[in-house]
Amino acid sequence: MLRKRQPTWIQRNSRFAIAAIATLGIVNTSYLTAARLLKGSVVCPVEGCDKVLESPYATVFGSIPLSALGLLAYLAMLAMAIAPWLLKADAPKTQRSLINDQTWLGLSIGGTAMAVFSGYLMSIMVFEIQAFCLYCVGSAISALCLFGLAIVGHDWEDIGAVGFRSVIVASITLIGAFALYAPLNVDPNDQTNGYAITTTSKPANIELAEYLSTSDIQMFGAFWCGHCHDQKQLFGKAASSKLDYVECDPNGENPEPDRCQAEQIESYPTWKIDGELHLGVQSLQELAQLSGYTGSTDFGVE
Predict the structure, then answer these.
(1) 47: which residues sit within 8 A by CB, 6+ positions away?
(2) Annotated domain spans of the chain
(3) Distance of CA 133 to CAs 47, 51, 111, 130, 233, Å?
(4) What are the tens digits of pLDDT across the range 13-58?
């Protein structure tokens, strides 16, 4: 009679490891998603995070943060990792075995898809956006670890079938990734792609923009900055074209990086009003109050 193979150390502890890594991924993606939805800045110890996280690649289906999809993926991996632990102690052995097998199947599929998609995003970060995002790299490493644990952490009866399934899942994931980002066709050095101002200015918006410009009030930003785009959307197409806008990225149109450095601009957008720096997106009412504007305040866009 053949003796059943004893599980290795990694197989005995793989679900704990997967649960721990998925939890770290949840914390990471939750922070990025909250910052994106609340239009806040992401604190990063290295330069480049904002450029990556505010690029057109950072949102999918129009306005959904990519990190939100990552959050859902990590939640799914966590749920599958701990599912057998949630069964009652007196649950039938057949039910426990079924849940164990099904969740390992799900973990292997999910781990493969996440690792491949993360690898695709890393190639975009390096070759397209040409910037470094510590949070993104951390997420990619987590996805790769989840994939590895999902494969080696279980005693598969047919490892060949696992490999074949992984190739199929990887192929489908890559096709989906190409289809997802095909409409963008973004050139990171083109400050117009993906950032068109689509709102129409009301007369008061134009009047305010002209007043800010003639009052020596500048808006510092970067062509890839999503928050800068949000700020211009508040003004509308006609009004935003009248702003005294200073481009801080050397790859942007008419860049003035030395001026931005001299003004100690550290985040975008930044408004300079009467010698003081005001960080982040400002409402038109706030700009009117800060600048001393006394014209019409019937602001809005269509």
Answers:
(1) 131, 132
(2) 9-181, 203-291
(3) 8, 8, 22, 10, 26
(4) 999 999 999 999 999 999 999 988 887 778 887 777 888 887 878 8
Q: How far is CA 124 from CA 127, 188, 229, 256, 281, in A?
A: 5, 10, 21, 26, 27
Q: Outline where 124-202 has alpha helix (H).
A: 134-152, 159-181
Q: What integer pLDDT is reported at residue 6 of this predicted model?
A: 80
112 and 43 Cβ atoms separated by less than 8 Å: no
Are 9-181 and 203-291 equal in CATH topology? no
What pLDDT does residue 253 have?
A: 87
Overall pTM > 0.70: yes
Render pLDDT for 218-246 as a digit per residue (tens, 0 to 9).
Answer: 999 988 887 888 899 999 999 999 999 99
Give dist(CA 214, CA 227) in Å, integer.
Answer: 24
Note the pLDDT of residue 117: 97
CA distances, 28 to each of 49, 116, 135, 162 (Å): 13, 19, 7, 29
Tally the residues of the chain. Answer: 302
Tokens representing residue 139 in the block: 């997420």
Q: 203-291 in CATH: which number? A: 3.40.30.10
Pick the CATH number of 9-181 from 1.20.1440.130, 3.90.1150.10, 2.60.40.10, 3.40.30.10: 1.20.1440.130
Q: Tell me the backbone φ, ψ of residue 13, rounded to 5 degrees.
A: -115, 5
> Do 247 and 256 meet the contact criterion of CB atoms below 8 Å apart?
yes
Bridge-based pairing state of the strands 244-247 and 270-273: unpaired
Which segments of the chain have a pLDDT < 50? 1-2, 186-194
HEC profile for 225-262? CHHHHHHHHHHCHHHHCCCEEEECCCCCCCECHHHHHH
